[in-house]
Structures are given as C-alpha cells and as structure tokens.
Specification:
The protein is of the alpha/beta class. It has helices at residues 15-26, 67-72, 105-113, 117-141, 152-166, 170-181, 184-189, 195-206, 218-224, 245-257, 300-305, 314-321, 364-377, 425-442, 446-449, 458-465, 517-531; strands at 6-11, 31-34, 46-50, 53-56, 82-84, 89-92, 98-101, 229-230, 233-234, 238-240, 261-263, 268-274, 277-283, 288-296, 330-336, 357-360, 379-388, 403-412, 450-456, 501-503. Strands 1, 2, 11, 12, 13, 14 and 20 form a seven-stranded mixed beta sheet that branches. It has a seven-stranded mixed beta sheet with strand order 7-6-16-17-18-15-19, sandwiched between helices. A hairpin with a 5-residue loop joins strand 6 and strand 7 (98-101). 53% of the residues are buried.
C-alpha cells in the first residue's frame, strides 16, 4: 500500500525529531514525522496519570533546551512558557540538617559555608573552572564532529576544530583532560573537603548514568549538566507550564505551521533501501512512505536490534548493537494530598525548597552504595532520588490544595539478576515501595499523602519510549561514545551506513537531555546533502 511521498521522513516524534523536521520544512523540504505512539513528544510528554492529576511522564525539568532552538522555532509564540525554580536544589541530610542551594555565587557560598568555610572560599574558582570548560564544549555543541575515514572534507573540518582547541591555554587543557577521564568523586576531591558538598556536586555526575561517583568518566557527565539556562539565565532550572509535553506540543505546532505532516499511531516496521541508499519506510500497517532521506530520532542502537534496518555488514551492525546503554533510571509520578513535611525543614505550606529539586543523596558513600546495591541486587536499598513538585509552580497539574511530584530515581539495573524480570510488574511496585519508604524517612507524612502513583521501570521506558535498556540519553555518555565516537566511530557526522540515512536524536552528538541540538545539527547536514545533490 503506497502512502504520501516526502523529501524526508523522520522516524520518531520526540523533541529532536520535531526540531529536525521544522528546520527542514523551513528550508522548503516536504517532511513527514512518523510517531508510533498516539501523541508526539517521545519521552517529553504530559499526561493525566490519575483523575485530576497531570504530570511529565519521563523527562521532567527544563534547563538544557537550546535558546537557539527556542528562538528559531518561535516556541513562545506557539504557547511555550517556562518559569524558573526559586531555588536550585535542596538536600535533606538528616533530621536536623539540610543543604539548600540557591542561585547566585554569594547565596551558594553562604549555604556551603554552613558546612565548610574553606569550600565556600573555593567555590568561585570551581565555578570559573567549570565555566572555562563549558565554554570550550559549548563551541562544539553546534559543530558536526569530524568523521573517521570521511575523506578530505572531514579532514578539513577536523583540522579547523583541532586548530581551535590547540589555542586553548594549558591550564584549560589539563582541566578538560581531568573532566573527560576522572570520576566525579576524584575531580571534586581536588576542590572540596566536606562530604555533603562533594555529594551535592557529584549528583550531577551520575544523573542518567548507571555508575558510581567513583567511576571514571562521571566527571564529564557532571559537566554535561552545567550547560543549561532558563530565560537567558545560565545555571537556572525551570518548569514548562503544562509539563514537558508543553515543549513538544509547541514544537509540533511550530512544525505544522511550516507544513510538516506530523502523524501519530504510525509505527515504522522497516527502512527500505536498495543499491546502498534509502528509498523509504514501511509502516506496521503495511503503508509505504517513499522518501529521499530518512532521519532517525529513535536511538541508533534500536534500528539494528529491532529488525528495522537489515542488510548491513556484520561489522557495521555489530558496532551499533554494541552501543553501551542503560542509565540505571526508574521514574515515578505521584499524586499527593499534601506537600511533604521534611523533618529538617518542617511545614506543609509551600516554601521555596518545595519548588526546588529535592535530592536524596547526602554523601559520596550513599551515592556509591546505591550503585553497588543495584549491581548486586538489581536495585538500591537506599536509592538516590531527585523529586520535583511542579504543582508548586503550575496550578494546571493538580486539583486545588493537592500536588503532583516527579521522582527521578537511581539506581536500578536495566536487567534484574537471576530469574527476576522487570516484565513482572510486581518488581517495579516493590522498588516503588522502597522509594516511598526512603522519602518517608525524610518527610514522615509522605506515604500517607500518596493518592496514586505511576511507575516506569527501565523496561517500561524502553517499551513505551524506545529507550534501549531504559537509557534516557539513548547511549551512555562515556568517553568512547562522545563527539566523533557518537553513536559509533565512523558515523559521527549524523550520516548512517546508507546514503540518505541520518541520526537526529540523542544518540548523536552532542548527546542526551532535552536540548534539541542533535535535531538542529542533523537538519543542517541533511540540507547540505540536498544542496550538493547527494540525495
């Protein structure tokens, strides 16, 4: 059965797919977005999970979304509004003490000084060092990585980037080597003395990463989470009114306004190709959509493990199937009768810490033990939790006087040991009980306040959103899977092993998070190939 033809077919209607589609359509290309689910947005969607209670289902906070993408797609005109958290993060430490990290250097120094005057004094130099490193990497975020074996044009591109990097001062080069190779714990040991302070910074080094803070490479993950801004304010975290789905719905409206055909319930069964180039896709319904180019917003690994792309050499297929995935992530959304009443900061009336990122992870040893537990037993007995209560900032999400909370939890193993499996829904419910118990240890009213909950194991995240092993970044952010090695060496310039096949999702440079940058960059390369008559 033949369907409508297009210049470009986008596989997956996640945020990067929508971004790529919009840029391509703005350049005059006919574009169709094919999303398997009933709503576009991928992992960035909002839904009602209990009558009267709505929340972001998987992704859950705003900071990394590119200001360029926001402006180019005119997302504000299409309904996007992002508000800032009043406080960055809040760490309950024990029954009496907490660390509340505000924005701004002076406020953060004051908060840290309660634990270490020396650490507070070192904070300006630490911030400056991370900003130096971030500036270097920001300059690469919009670049197409040089592709190994890609010919003279790739050599010239690599030489240009290499020339810029050679001009960096020696101290910054040393800093970058440390960040790319060291563990978060090792990197932070060189800066701070207090364990609570180190744990607060190390948390960003394990977010979306199935690793201990002592695992080499987690220092880069820490840096990856430092690029963000909200409403032009660097380092600020925010909330999209209406949840994360408000971002992707604004993107979908922007795409449609430029003529993109956005289709839901349109699962792709296979990529069609012949003589080394793509010719279109076949949907599970049997419909065929012919296309000169195909851009996969889905995880690159998934193309080769799902049977969607066949006929590749064993070497190529093997490289993609070996992409390391698994972020150790478990997601929960809960409907609450009342706000949590923390013993270290009592009160159930909304305060600034209720609207912050509430993190359970008081020490490096705690973060390390959570990972060790999950490696050994399948999940952490004392999990690392980041809880947001977006209804403190957004009254569209819950009935008056009640609330919704997002719990981003680590660590869980992508596959449970022994004969246990996430396919058994009881396993997810057992771990959800552990999470609730841990929150209740810090806020005794929490369990009694829970009206309903939605739980998503790594397998749920994979089945529903196409995240291999539940990996929120589509592929781990290790040194072997960054820049010219993302998704795999030889295919880093957004082009796949077939002419006309492209990668435009989080599995491509610069990686995961709700940024829109892989979609932006891939669209640029696709348009180059159209101009060069390669398609």
């Amino acid at each position: 059965m033949a369907g409508r033809d297009a210049d470009v077919a986008i596989l997956g209607g996640g945020h990067n797919g929508l971004v790529a589609a919009t840029y391509l359509a703005a350049a005059g290309k006919s574009v169709v977005v094919l999303e398997k689910n009933a709503v576009v947005g991928g992992a960035a969607i909002t839904e009602e999970f209990h009558p009267g209670f709505r929340n972001s289902v998987a992704s859950y906070t705003v900071s990394l979304l590119s200001p360029k993408v926001i402006a180019d797609l005119d997302l504000a005109a299409h309904g996007l509004r992002v508000v800032e958290r009043p406080v960055a993060n809040f760490w309950p430490l024990d029954e009496r003490r907490s660390l509340v990290m505000p924005y701004g250097l002076a406020g953060r120094q004051t908060a840290i000084a309660e634990f270490s005057a020396s650490d507070a004094a070192r904070l300006p130099d630490y911030d400056a060092a991370l900003e130096r490193a971030a500036q270097v990497l920001r300059s690469l975020m919009l670049e197409t990585p040089p592709n190994a074996g890609g010919g003279i044009l790739e050599f010239i591109q690599g030489a240009k980037i290499g020339g810029r990097l050679l001009k960096i001062d020696l101290a910054t080069k040393r800093l970058l080597v440390d960040l790319f190779t060291k563990s978060a714990a090792s990197f932070l040991e060189g800066w701070f003395e207090n364990d609570h302070v180190k744990a607060a910074f190390a948390f960003d080094g394990i977010v979306g990463t199935f690793a201990s803070p002592y695992t080499p490479g987690t220092a880069y993950v820490l840096l990856h989470h430092c690029f963000g801004e909200v409403n032009g304010k660097p380092g600020v975290w925010g909330h999209a009114i209406g949840g994360m789905g408000a971002i992707t719905q604004a993107m979908a409206r922007s795409a449609r306004a430029r003529g993109v055909d956005v289709r839901t319930n349109a699962a792709v069964s296979r990529i069609m190709h012949g003589r080394g180039r793509v010719t279109g896709v076949q949907l599970q319904s049997g419909e065929i959509v012919a296309a000169r180019a195909i851009a996969a917003s889905v995880a690159p690994k998934l193309l080769f493990t799902s049977g969607m792309l066949e006929g590749q050499s064993a070497d190529v297929a093997g490289a993609f199937r070996r992409i390391e995935t698994g972020s150790g992530t478990f997601r929960m959304n809960v409907a609450l009768r009342a706000l949590p009443d923390f013993t270290c900061r009592p009160g159930v009336h909304a305060q600034s810490h209720h609207a912050s990122g509430i993190v359970i992870g008081p020490t490096l040893a705690y973060l390390d033990a959570a990972y060790a537990d999950a490696r050994r037993e399948g999940w952490s007995q004392k999990p690392v939790i980041e809880m947001l209560i977006p209804s403190t900032l957004d009254d569209t999400l819950a009935p008056p006087g009640q609330h919704v909370a997002s719990l981003f939890v680590q660590h869980v193993a992508p596959r449970l040991p022994g004969d246990r499996s996430w396919a058994d829904a009881r396993e997810a419910e057992r771990f959800a009980d552990i999470v609730v118990d841990e929150m209740t240890r810090h806020a005794p009213n929490f369990r009694a306040s829970v009206i309903a909950r939605q739980v998503l194991s790594p397998l749920d995240l994979e089945r529903r959103f196409g995240l291999p092993d539940g990996d929120i970044f589509h592929a781990q952010l290790g040194l072997g899977q960054l820049f010219s090695a993302r998704p795999v060496l030889g295919y880093a310039n957004y082009r796949g092993p077939l002419t006309g096949l492209y990668f435009c999702g989080a599995g491509a440079h610069p990686g995961g998070g709700v940024t829109g940058l892989p979609g932006h960059n891939a669209a640029r390369e696709i348009l180059k190939d159209f101009r060069r008559k390669r398609l």
